[in-house]
Amino acid sequence: MLRESKASKVARAAAVLDELHRVYPDARTELEHSNPFELLISTILSAQATDKSVNAASPALFKTYPDAFALAQATPDEVAPYIKSIGLYKNKAKNIVSTAQKLAESFSGEVPKDFDALVTFPGVGRKTANVVLSNAYGRPAIAVDTHVGRLARRLKFSKHDNPDKVEKDLQAVLPEDQWIFAHHALILHGRRVCNARKPDCEACTLSPLCPSSMA
Description:
Elements: H1 6-23, H2 36-45, H3 51-64, H4 68-72, H5 76-79, H6 89-106, H7 115-118, H8 126-137, H9 146-154, H10 163-173, H11 179-192
Helix pairs in contact: 2-8, 9-11
């Protein structure tokens, strides 16, 4: 197979974006939140868990601990029952309490808008920081989860498994003003059509643009 030129890949990425806009015009995070604090905590909780499970648990959690100052006063053991239905809840309880304490002590309870500051919080890696920056503050970012990484490889926009490298590869072929939309749309497409075990290539409208298509 001939190596695809950069210009050809960029053009194909633009066509993929056009189709994603048609299919998922309102693509956005499915984590329910009303402010940056809730989004940060919910994103930490969503690691290796479904958004659905986080959305089911978060209302009671945030009713009891509505801001960083309230959550900072809690212990992990007090928080754990609220998130017991979410995977790895014991470790996540420690992380969200520690994160709240750091927010209260060093950031006046406000979630920082700075990437380097965000990744210093317990349980916050590059993906979580990008989710918060893009969804809470509208900063151009591509959050690479398992769905985004899988689709990037199947679409031959990246050959890497490392999320940081996938992020850079996608940034190279997608316009910056489309980064936020693109990662949400790719997540939805990965959940609904291009799943890990059995991608539904026949029903996939991206198939004509996808080198991996079996349709």
